[in-house]
Amino acid sequence: MDLRIDPSNSLPIYAQVVDQVKALVACRALRPGDAVPSIRDLAATLRINRNTAAKAYQLLEADGVLETRQGQGSVVAEGGTRWSWEERRRRLVVSLDRTLVEAHHLEIPPEEVVRLLEDRIRITTRRPRAGDKA
Amino acid sequence: MDLRIDPSNSLPIYAQVVDQVKALVACRALRPGDAVPSIRDLAATLRINRNTAAKAYQLLEADGVLETRQGQGSVVAEGGTRWSWEERRRRLVVSLDRTLVEAHHLEIPPEEVVRLLEDRIRITTRRPRAGDKA
Amino acid sequence: MDLRIDPSNSLPIYAQVVDQVKALVACRALRPGDAVPSIRDLAATLRINRNTAAKAYQLLEADGVLETRQGQGSVVAEGGTRWSWEERRRRLVVSLDRTLVEAHHLEIPPEEVVRLLEDRIRITTRRPRAGDKA
Amino acid sequence: MDLRIDPSNSLPIYAQVVDQVKALVACRALRPGDAVPSIRDLAATLRINRNTAAKAYQLLEADGVLETRQGQGSVVAEGGTRWSWEERRRRLVVSLDRTLVEAHHLEIPPEEVVRLLEDRIRITTRRPRAGDKA
DNA sequence: GTGGTCTAGACCACG
DNA sequence: GTGGTCTAGACCACG
Could you give the angle at the alpha carbon of C61 between the alpha carbons of C57 and C64, nearest 5°? Predict the structure, then answer.
């Protein structure tokens, strides 16, 4: 699992880990059932404190992204969101609105935002091949 | 300028001000050249610390959203983004990718994300009419 | 806020705090909007580490029981659960089944469990009086 | 004896075994005098560590659920709780109160809790018939 | 080996 | 003043 901590990033270290793991899961570089490094290994690799690594994993578990098994490390969880459809929609709309505000300040017109979104979908959800799990 | 501070929001107050001013500019409730309240007035209206209001304005200026003319208060800056098209595109893609990662974890399929984005564009870019509150 | 840590309890300290605060909210000894002690105060009073107290408050916030405001301590949150009705029902059934298993081992018949439950409801949801918020 | 270990459950394996055996006894799928597998067999079947299985049986014995006769394996103990009525009532009330606290936070009203409890009693105390799997 | 808890103590952001 | 982050390091539970 290839993570990079940027100490100049104002985002806390544990949040950088959380975001990057979520991104790896979202782009299917990590799939349900895949093992992730132990907290100790991750901490050593990233040269961060064990507690910081543990906090990231705990948040990922609370978010349903990882599952931790009895002294056997963590794996990527199966899906199955715990939120109502309304709640999920509400959360995504917050994210979309934030993006639209940014687009306006970047002077990128709405149609172009839609076009770029479709681009990114095409790029990030790349074709599963034979043998890949859907 | 109608801003609302949510004390239970984990986002710092100054950042809430920044985001909301940007949103008002983005939805054209505030337009280039429009005056915004003085730091002192804003602090009094929102009942926040004057330093907090000052920090927000300072960030908005750094972002090119406001312009402060010595002793004459601040106004919404003319557009004229300072970044290249490539840089602007790059920044929006970061935001879109973040949204797509979230959509994946919320188990909202890409087509639905596009549909919701188009919804939000329709809703948020509706031209404010005379009498509308900012 | 009167909490008691039992060092001989196998439940971690932070979880004892969480449970007791939840109980105080459930029996309306703490109501939405009420302030709770600062993390530093709580830690000093209970003679536990600040980090341990912070962890308890963070979990309570994640659970929607507390809201933390900008450097101004925490207050009891307004209601508004974030889970679907199915999820909420599922969680309560887990708790009820656990109770029924325990009742069986205590050789307390089901009808008596229902009777005791009704007793506890009567005792713990004591009459709101005029002026009390519903 | 049909037990299922869920490795993603945060409850330790030995506790899962304890809870499930208690549940089987509670729903009368296991009755006083019934033999349970040896520690060695249980460990092999569930593919868990032999020490883990031993710890579960030891706790079940301490709780008066199993009885081990030297060299003859373990059987489900006769009822005959060792506690006074007051003590047994006190323990169940702890469990009921915990459930009521949870119901409050799930915003499930007390009457609904009673209704759900009655449902669960109806469902869980249905007498197992010949041919039913334990 | 694995993760979880707790402490002591530093330092920072916010207001 | 408030809470949040991070480290170093100890000790424990689980298997």
Answer: 140
The residue-averaged pLDDT of D28-41 equals 93
Q: Which residues in chain D are contacts of C125 at CB distance < 8 A?
A: 110
**Phi, psi dihedrals of residue D75, rounded to the nearest 5°:** -135, 160
- Integer-rounded Cα Rg, in Å, for chain A is 17
- Strand ranges for chain B from DSSP E: 35-36, 66-68, 74-76
The burial of A65, by beta-carbon neighbours within 10 Å (0-12 exposed, 13-18 middle, 19 or more buried), is given as buried
Tokens of B69: 């003319």
Query: How many A/D residue pairs have CB atoms within 8 Å?
Result: 10
Asked if residue A132 has pLDDT above 60, the reply is: no
Residue C110 makes CB contacts below 8 A (sequence gap 6+) with C100, C103, D121, D125
Which CA distances in Å does D60 have to B20, C109, D81?
Answer: 59, 21, 13
* Distance in Å, alpha carbon of A66 to nearest chain D alpha carbon: 10
Residue A130 CB coordination number (10 Å): 4
Tokens of B126: 């509706």
| Contact A/C (≥3 CB pairs under 8 Å) | yes
Distance from the Cα of A71 to chain C's closest Cα (Å) equals: 18
Measured CA to CA, the distance from residue A47 to residue C25 in angstroms comes to 41
Confidence of residue D126 (pLDDT cuts 50, 70, 90): confident
**Strand, coil or helix: what is D111?**
helix
Reading the block at residue D115, the tokens are: 């209704």
Q: pTM to 2 decimals?
A: 0.87
